[in-house]
Amino acid sequence: MLILYLVTILFDCLHAVYFDDYDHQPKARGAPSTDDIEFEPVMTLTKDKEKLISMKNINCDNFAEYAHNCTTEAAMSYNSVKKSPPMPGQVYDWCKAIRHLTNCAIDWNSDCKDVTESHFNEESIRGHMHVVNNICNDEQFLSRYDELPNCIEGSADAWEKCYAFFKSTVDEQKNTTHEWTHFETHFHMCCARAKFRRCTADALFDIPKTCPYEQAVTLQQFSAIVSEGDVFQNCDINMMYENCPGGDPRPTGKSLSKLMNKHSHSTSLSSESKVNVILFTFYFVCGLIK
């Protein structure tokens, strides 16, 4: 049975590497709370009933003020000077802030597209939605995330350093052009994404007493999803990682082998836990090479 799990997940990994068209499907989600519904766009039919638009009475003449107000309102839900992963007790507020920013952007682009050229980047919106679907709406992931307070706290400084460099590099590229899929921009952003994942993996798996293996895999999964949110592009196509600034950021075969064999001889894990570790590890590997 374990071999069957491995073959199935390995096939999924290979499919993701060679055939993934980046059409991510949202995870199954629990019933939304009242607070969740509050931040969903209010949609209503137009008179011709041919399309849906959001009715928010937005002043489309001042994009900068609208964006500032959205950020301020989101900060009322989650406001942290640190960029490290939120503690489990704060992840709901973190998700609420992301949902609000996402809906703000969708509302502006829907209501103001005919009266102004100022708009939120569609790729950025899709990236935010990807994070919401794969973290905030994934109950199984959140249940594992609840076990991470010590791991998050112990790795916070290292994780934040990884993210600060990643974010700086990505923002520099995004600020130079609106065409984020341009070859050169795409190349540097994908290099930065791979380097960030390598950086967090090295940090998380180097502190086993603070971040036990299963917890490190879960937090690395969080890191991979966040990096996909910031760089929501298919980084498998036309990428020459060996030419990235600073060298190839992808993990070496030796590093991946070490991860896969970390618990191969462990007798402290139940059979079910071993299966979960293997499944998480395959996700981690797929996340690194995507």
List keywords for this structure.
290 residues, mainly alpha, 2 domains, two-stranded antiparallel ribbon, globular, disordered N terminus, disordered C terminus, signal
Write the layout of secondary structure elements.
Layout: H1 2-19, H2 34-38, E1 43-45, E2 52-54, H3 63-75, H4 91-111, H5 122-136, H6 139-145, H7 149-174, H8 183-204, H9 213-230, H10 253-260, H11 271-289
Antiparallel strand pairs: 1-2
Helix pairs in contact: 1-11, 3-4, 4-5, 5-9, 7-8, 7-9, 8-9, 9-11
Description of the molecule:
It is a single chain. By secondary structure, the chain is mainly alpha-helical. The protein has two domains: 33-120, no CATH class; 139-290, no CATH class. Helix content is 59%, strand content 2%. The chain is built from eleven helices and two strands, in the order ααββααααααααα. It has a two-stranded antiparallel ribbon. Helix 3 (63-75) packs antiparallel against helix 4. The chain is globular. Residues 1-54 and 263-290 have low confidence and may be disordered. Residues 1-16 form the signal peptide. Keywords: Signal.
What is the CA–CA distance across the termini?
27 Å
Largest sheet: 2 strands, antiparallel
Binned, the helix content reads 55-70%
Task: Tell me the domain tally.
Answer: 2
Keywords: Signal
Signal peptide: 1-16
Summarize this structure briefly.
Keywords: Signal. With 290 residues, the protein is an all-alpha fold.
